[in-house]
Amino acid sequence: MKTTHLVKRAVSSLLQTPPNPQDIAVVSQVLNIAEFAVWSDMQYRDQRHSVVVLHRFDILAPAAVRADRASALLHDVGKNISNLGFVSRVIATVVGPRGQRFIAYHDHERLGAELLRSISDPRTVALVGGLVDDDISLLLKAADDI
User: Fold this and answer.
1) What is the 8-class DSSP label of residue 129?
2) CA–CA separation, 75 vs 15, rounded Å?
3) Which of 38, 72, 103, 134 fits a 20 to 30 Å CA distance from 62?
4) Spatial separation of the C-alpha atoms in residues 55 and 53, rounded to whole Å
5) Is the CB of residue 49 less than 8 Å from the CB of residue 9?
6) Who's near 71: CB < 8 A, 6+ residues apart?
7) What is d(CA 41, CA 66) in angstroms, rounded to the nearest whole number?
8) CA angle 16, 21, 23 (to 5 degrees)
9) If you write DSSP's letter for every residue of 66-92 in order, what string do you get?
10) Helix 108-116 × helix 33-40 angle, to 10°
């Protein structure tokens, strides 16, 4: 992972304010009811980040289908399972997958896919889980490289 990506992400994560109402409206139009409930459980910093990723993804992939767009919003949903705050996430990034919560943080793609398996389109699950290697998955990664 690029250092610049990590620094930009850390700076944007300092504030724990909710997304604005307009962004929440966009999210509610993309996600199904169950996905929206899972997204709503994410930390505010992750919600805000996911909206930025969606906006970037929409520019990169204007013809993307709902399942692809949902993956942009849900790509970090597995991070909730680790229940790490800002400082712990920074430490987990530096020291790696040591201890149960840090392991969960580093395994967020697989855990997110498991969380979504029964409520999302299989395409969304595969993209969130990092199991797809196509143009859309590359554009999703590019949109996340903030």
Assistant:
1) T
2) 20
3) 38
4) 6
5) yes
6) 123, 124, 127, 128, 140
7) 21
8) 80
9) HHHHHHHHHTTTTHHHHT--HHHHHHH
10) 140
Q: How is residue 44 written in tokens?
A: 């505010």
* The two three-digit tokens of residue 13, written as one number: 């994560």
Contact criterion met (CB below 8 Å) for 72 and 40: no
Tell me how far apart the alpha carbons of residues 2 and 86 are, in angstroms, rounded to a whole number. 19
The whole-angstrom separation of Cα 75 and Cα 64 is 15
Per-residue pLDDT of the chain (146 residues; tens, 9 = 90+): 556 655 555 555 556 789 999 999 999 999 999 999 999 999 999 999 999 999 999 999 999 999 999 999 999 898 887 776 766 556 657 766 677 766 566 567 888 899 999 999 999 999 999 999 999 999 999 999 97
CA nearest to 9, candidates 95, 118, 89: 89
Q: What is the dihedral of CA 79, 53, 47, 65, to 10 degrees?
A: -90
